[in-house]
Amino acid sequence: MEGCCNCHHSHEHTHGTSKSHNGAANEAAAHDCAVCVRDVCFSYNGPEVLHNVSFVIPKKSLVAVIGPNGGGKTTLLRLLLGDLKPRYGKIEILGKQPSQQRSRIGLVPQQINFDDQFPISVLEAVMTGRVGTRVFGGFSKADKDAAIAAIKKVGLEGFEKKRFSELSGGQRQRVMIARALSNDPDLLFLDEPTANVDSVTELELFKLFQELAKEKTLIMVSHNVHVVITHSSHLLCVNRTAHLHDLAAGMDVDTELIPLNNIGDIKSFVHEHTPSHVHHLMEALYKPHSGENHND
What we know:
The chain is of the alpha/beta class. It has a domain at 114-185. Helix content is 25%, strand content 24%. It has helices at residues 21-31, 73-81, 122-127, 141-153, 169-181, 199-212, 225-231; strands spanning 33-43, 48-58, 62-66, 88-93, 105-108, 187-191, 217-221, 234-239, 241-246, 255-259, 267-271, 274-275. Strand 11 and strand 12 form a beta hairpin. The chain is globular.
């Protein structure tokens, strides 16, 4: 059966135990896919929020998700996490259904619900990310070592005993990132990770994201188009439909790049020759469903 990855899998022709060259190549290509979305449609018992969405995210990518409020960004993130299931189409995370890969996904939410009066240290806050690994009892030495390694990775070495309430906004965000990293996930999802920090801290965090993307796949929702285009490897434009752009490639048949406010090399996207930062709707929402109907 054909897999989700748009790598054009074919049925393998075998002679004895050897595989065809095409089959081996397809397996290698599929192995490089972190996220494969094909013909996905979703609705909350009403008009579709997402329609015929397809894209493939390679491993070790830094993907920024942009689009207008209400365009489906958060819904798409929840679908990738497995919190929601598509009505049509198929989603694979590292070759399996999202619900089967939760242990391989780290999540940094937009809002941090924290009581400033609660006396928790940085190390303790990061170790709470290891709760899912515990069957019973308290934290182990392995949990502590993993938390310390994550703290070091985000640049907060030496802050382990410092109270979380005493940290700056940027430092708190690094703690939340370390918390998500404490289980050593393969994918890291971030929802507006720089929404509550200043511009200097924002740039520092994006440098951190670029370092993390050398080992992991990062997918982040963001509204700061100027910054994400400069620092991300891919741009996923979402507005009911979706289109993934490889920023290293610079241009594709559906997209033109134009200067944004004439600021250096920063670029903006024009879809279908209509000035917009997202995929222009036009007739896209009215195309027939392409994927399998999971409600049948």
